[in-house]
Write a structure and sequence with these properties.
2 copies of one chain form a homodimer. Chain A is α/β, with parallel strands linked by helices and about 375 residues long. The first copy, chain A, has helices at about 5-15, 15-25, 35-45, 50-60, 75-90, 105-115, 135-140, 165-180, 195-210, 230-245, 260-275, 290-295, 305-320, 355-364, and strands at about 65-70, 95-100, 120-125, 145, 160-165, 185-190, 220, 255-260, 285, 300-305, 330-335, 340. In chain A, the strands form 3 sheets. Chain A has a 6-stranded parallel beta sheet, sandwiched between helices. A 4-stranded parallel beta sheet of chain A has the order 7-6-8-9. In chain A, strands 10-12 form a two-stranded antiparallel ribbon. In chain A, strand 6, helix 9 and strand 7 form a beta-alpha-beta unit. In chain A, helix 1 crosses helix 2. The interface between A and B is large, with 54 and 54 residues. Chain A binds a DNA duplex (30 and 30 nucleotides) through helix 2 and helix 4.
Chain lengths: ~375, ~375
DNA sequence: TCGAGTTAGTAAATCGTTACACCACTTCCG
DNA sequence: CGGAAGTGGTGTAACGATTTACTAACTCGA
């Protein structure tokens, strides 16, 4: 099992290292079949595996791809990371994992380091509108795939993006609630800075306006503007939102669109703190459709992201040869999200404001 | 930004590449301070970063560590992977992510590939009792840290393990339920094959017997013996268990110890299918204390694993120099788990069997 | 039979870093 | 004052794979 080199294979097959290298790199048309077979046999018998470091030193790049997610601790990103890794194995690649914790500076450092370390491509899950902060490495030829962030007008040409249509998602969520008869629908999110969040909100607004209602009448909650959030924090945002929306003096929503499932789950927890029942007292719809959505009590209505499909697409682009700055024009793939109705959304209960107020009083 | 080499730094500093290399590798005692400062300055000005591939080719190993988890899609492993990556960054390392999907063959292939690709160490989250299947690479000097799998008698000496004391965990879980007054306590798990599962079960049994009860009276559910499980499957196990335990003719438990939180959550979902209330009708305690446990309705009582601490420890061992076969004797760190009481466990309800039976009938 | 073209393969340079042997010069001590 | 030891470096040969240029040995047509 001591490491076997291309030289040893060459000797065993009675050829030069160059010829073995040719086999390794798919240029076996340059030799007679008998030679090729001898080499194949030698490789198999010696259990030869080319040394990655040597290859990279020579060629500049590896088969590794970098995956930068906000935090794998968040079940959505965990599930995505899993699909990416599975797709990577299928493509003969490895995955270097990075948690940006939604810190733009960390993101930048990761991207630069990954690039300098010779990754083949990077799948960057970012919410930042501009890619200027990493334009230097993109210009140098980095094959960048952004995920959960559709292509933006100012993006470098070579950048590929894979995302769902967040506008449609937001629209679907609001429409569902409107159809159930809700007219007081809150939008709950930690921060509206990111492009996908903004798109979800616009979709939400479109549906509201189409229904002849006024968006400005809807309660909205976007606290914690500055707080970075991973897994715990996303839920904490929802929990805080529930407390704020249902203990203040403002009009209370009968339904809520949460920016993602973790926030929705946190919101549910917040309602529980106040003695309110999800589905019965307040309808809630999440976003992402993580595994936990179906497990929750009541099971959470959500907007599903086709995560496996997206991971496969992102991976394909990340390892595609014809990428890099200046070659082909970047693509932007926008997948359609899907409404998954469960039990956290129901028609509004015929009730007066007092009931809720009393329940809240009782819980305090 | 074009790549700058050690040669360029050497020229800029007016020394040889060897001397720069000495600085890079902490041997700056071999030169006068003025030289050292010139080199430092040149490095900073040129923005030099040593080429990883070249280093690895020369030295044989990288700063990268391999992380093999069953599936990052499972929130527990996702949370763990996050902590590992955070610790890795702090230690100047990168993390190569691998999902074994609990497939021993995948595990082996990953470990071998990671080793051949020159990782510095591997953190292997496995449930296999024997490490024979990878003993070849361990003998070659691999710094292996097993997680969630305490050291076993036959393990190679160099192997380090970081885990909680699963026996204590199982004991804590059962004791809690016994103290609440439960006497019919089920143990629910997908498969009892793994060492930590077996330990949890033994702890469970100890507590039962100490209370003067007979373990053989307790219902136990360990279906899906052969099913590999990731995130979805673990929950599915719990759900199936709930159906089996509460629709059959056998005596029904008033409380349940689940092998982990995902299974517990699945069990809760199963109870809901049957119209039973968690906490009220049946008490449930999970294991791991994932973020979702606190978010659930009702919040799930669980046995907490000190995940951050464990990740830090595992990382320290994975990058420790003094490891490898034949050097120091392997360590085995066993941390104490902690009972976190929430609302899914309560004293058993005074009720007759009919109530439950009727509720179940109604749900079908 | 000559020479151009093809076939099948090789030798050598190279990628960036590091370890080892070595060297010139100074200092110190008996 | 001779030589051993110490100081502050440098030159060179790897590490393992790839690529470019090159060369024998054939083939084939005129």
């Amino acid at each position: 099992m001591a490491k076997v080199t291309i030289q040893q294979v060459a000797k065993a097959a009675g050829v030069s290292a160059s010829t073995v290298s040719n086999v390794l790199n798919g240029r076996s048309d340059r030799m007679v079949q008998a030679t090729r077979e001898r080499i194949d046999k030698a490789i198999a018998e010696l259990g030869y595996r080319p040394n990655r470091a040597a290859r990279q030193l020579r060629n500049g790049r590896t088969q590794t791809i970098g995956l930068v997610v906000p935090s794998v601790g968040n079940p959505f990103w965990g599930a995505f990371a899993r699909e990416i890794e599975l797709a990577a194995v299928a493509a003969g690649s490895s995955v270097l994992l990075c948690n940006s914790e939604r810190d733009p500076d960390r993101e930048r450092r990761y991207v630069e380091e990954l690039w300098e370390d010779g990754v083949r491509g990077i799948i960057l899950c970012t919410s930042l509108a501009s890619l200027d902060y990493i334009s230097n490495v993109i210009d140098e030829g980095l094959q960048l795939v952004t995920f959960d962030r559709p292509a933006q007008p100012g993006d470098p040409e070579s950048v590929v993006s894979v995302s769902i249509d967040n506008h449609v998602g937001g629209y679907l969520a609001a429409s569902h609630l409107l159809e159930l008869g809700h007219t007081q629908i809150a939008f709950v999110s930690g921060s509206i800075q990111s492009v996908n969040r903004a798109a979800r909100y616009r979709g939400f607004c479109s549906a509201i306006e189409e229904a002849g209602l006024d968006v400005s009448d809807m309660p909205m909650w976007t606290g914690f503007e500055t707080l970075p959030f991973g897994d715990v924090e996303a839920a904490e945002v929802g929990r805080k939102a529930a407390h704020d929306l249902f203990t203040g003096d403002a009009a209370r929503p009968t339904a809520v669109v949460a920016i993602n499932d973790m926030t929705a789950l946190g919101f549910c927890r917040g309602l529980r703190d106040l003695g309110l029942k999800v589905g019965e007292d307040v309808s809630i719809i999440g976003f992402d459709d993580i595994v936990l959505a179906d497990l929750y009590d009541p099971p959470l209505t959500s907007i599903r992201q086709p995560i496996k499909r997206m991971a496969t697409l992102a991976m394909e682009e990340a390892v595609s040869q014809d990428g890099g700055a200046g070659s082909e024009v970047g693509r932007s793939v926008l997948l359609r999200p899907q409404l998954v109705v469960r039990e956290s959304t129901r028609p509004p209960k015929a009730r007066n404001e007092h009931e809720v107020a009393n329940a809240v009083e009782g819980a305090r």
